[in-house]
Amino acid sequence: MMLDILWSFLILIGIAVAAITGNIEAVSTGILASAKDAIELLIVMAGVVAMWNGFLYIADGSDLTRLLARKMKPLLKFLFPSLPQDHIAGDYICANFIANMLGLGWACTPTGLSAMKALKELEQERLRTNINHSDNSFSKSHKQLSLDTASDEMCTFLILNISSLQLIPMNLIAYRSQYGSPQPMAVIIPGLITTTLTTVIAIIICKVMCHRQ
Amino acid sequence: MRLISYISVMIIPLVIFYITLHALLMRKHVFELFLNGAKQGLLTVFEIAPSLIGLLVAVGIFRNSGALDLFCNFLTTVNNSLPFSTLTLPPELLPLTFLKLFSSSGANALLFDIFKKHGTDSYIGFAASVLLCCTETLFYTISIYFTSVQIKKTRWVIPVGILLSLVSLISSAWIARLFV
């Protein structure tokens, strides 16, 4: 719902401002240009995402993601306390965190989307068991009865994705050296400090928000 | 420093090497797995295409109309009228934070403008670099991740995401001061 409002806000305010300031011509050509840019981006993205998803399936099929998830179990249990043990969502979440930390860019999208799909299936399972034990409907999971609402796990996962813990910000180093920085890598340590800080704050907020309802 | 640039070049090949070798040692049909995944990956891109187009068009309208500049000017005025001088942030960083919520390429374009105008290792250039290290495109991620699983009610994700962007903004403005 909020996304609907924001999206319409961008369009309506944009066009209204353009009409007042006389930028309507720029908007008119801009609309077509951005639709075209979106497809160009998608074409580049398609190759990279398909490639990473292929390797994700290899890692998944050979139980590598499961192995990683086992190693990260304490972390997973801390961040997602109500996620059932050894659920497939945990594997994808771990793979996504690793891809994020290594700065693998578009490798994060396939792992993240797989994690979201697995979390959605988890919600469907929960809903089913909830209907079976209707006397239990006041148990902990009753708050997420409808399937179009984000679960606690989904929210936490998304927020942690946004706080973007990354070890080496490769893109930024490249941009900085491209623009003639004498020390393009000087950004690594302060960057690490700030992402760690935001990630810690993100975890605290997620814990509070999940606990509140 | 040379080590870090070496690592950053090695990381993707190394990850791919490790995944492939591990699967081969486990006697899996590596290529078949890859093909299945790549096919699913293409379908995924196809699935997220509508949200990406929708988002980029809306952001394009907002930027081309001059509404973004107006909004950023407004933010700058608010920022400059804050009573605490330690809280006052460099005015260039506010539009950067705002743009980064919607589009990575837009934020990068603005970053390059800052680099050209102030230099990469000036206080503002450096703070902007740090800021883009620790923020992610909130609305892009939300629209792609949530629409892919038909989630409509995003609960507290958007307000918390915006709050985290503000935290990144303030902390990068402060930390950059220590390093420049």
Total helices of chain A: the number is 9
Report the count of strand segments of chain B: 0
How do the helices and strands follow one another from N- to C-terminus of chain A?
HHHHHHHHH
Range of helix content of chain A: over 70%
The shape of chain A, in one word, is globular
**The biggest beta sheet of chain B, please?**
none
**Structural class by secondary-structure content of chain A:** mainly alpha
Mean pLDDT across residues of chain A: 85
Q: N-to-C terminal Cα separation of chain B, in Å?
A: 18 Å
Number of strands of chain A: 0
Radius of gyration of chain B: 21 Å
Assembly context of the chains? heterodimer
Give the domain tally of chain A: 2
What does this structure look like?
The complex is a heterodimer of chains A (213) and B (180). By secondary structure, chain A is mainly α. Chain A has 9 helices and no strands. In chain A, α3 crosses α5, α5 packs antiparallel against α6 and α7 packs antiparallel against α9. The longest helix of chain A is centred in the first third of the chain and has 38 residues. The model of chain B has no long low-confidence stretch (mean pLDDT 86). Chain B has one domain. Chain B is built from 8 helices and no strands. The interface between A and B is large, with 101 and 97 residues.
In brief, what are we looking at here?
The complex is a heterodimer of chains A (213) and B (180). By secondary structure, chain A is mainly alpha-helical.
List keywords for this structure.
heterodimer, A: 213 residues, mainly alpha, 2 domains, 9 helices, 74% helix, 0% strand, B: 180 residues, 8 helices, 79% helix
